[in-house]
Amino acid sequence: xxxxxxxxxxxxxxxxxxxxxxxxxxxxxxxxxxxxxxxxxxxxxxxxxxxxxxxxxxxxxxxxxxxxxxxxxxxxxxxxxxxxxxxxxxxxxxxxxxxxxxxxxxxxxxxxxxxxxxxxxxxxxxxxxxxxxxxxxxxxxxxxxxxxxxxxxxxxxxxxxxxxxxxxxxxxxxxxxxxxxxxxxxxxxxxxxxxxxxxxxxxxxxxxxxxxxxxxxxxxxxxxxxxxxxxxxxxxxxxxxxxxxxxxxxxxxxxxxxxxxxxxxxxxxxxxxxxxxxxxxxxxxxxxxxxxxxxxxxx
Length: 299
Prior knowledge:
By secondary structure, this protein is an alpha+beta fold.
């Protein structure tokens, strides 16, 4: 009887000790995984930061050098008379460089406001096809110069959507800019708008460009990330176009999805919710903010 009780007690003790050792091993394993993940994230963040500083230096200096150089030539007009054609050409170059510089600064400010949660939307009902056609028209000249064809297919029964027209224009401008930038001569871009059965709208921006692998897509969606971060990359940019577009789509309650493969082109889908769903979400959000304000006032 005592032996039996003693054996049971000893077995329980061994089981408890084994369970404790196993639990410690699991915790150590999880700690190692967490430490490894943190190290990888830190290394990636450091790499992205270094590439951002190098790329941003280039992105800012190039237009600034253009502005300084050609404005200096114009300032010397009294000493060296310039033909009217050259004056107009220099002024246009300065204007283009200043516009590029402003776009870079605006992108940096936009991503900063989005990440800090201080971005506001002026939401109202609108026709998405009108915005798409306007953005497509603005890229015709650049696409023709690059030898790229742009095609559009708009469903005839597209419902109105609710959102900020300026931000929608920015979303599709960023997407088309990337499509033109990374599609080589004789390639094509297709912009297609489809109606969902629930009143949503899906916009597809499809190109025959260089494409990306899964790991490159993750980099492209990282603010300031460059798929090709080397100074010898064949296309310039700050690496903010896709992250800003994705963030703005999500602020509208939508989703941005990327399907791509190296050498096979890229398709970006922007899924925008029904205007009724957006209106309901805005109403709830307004109620929550009002309730929180009342609670804070009571406190």
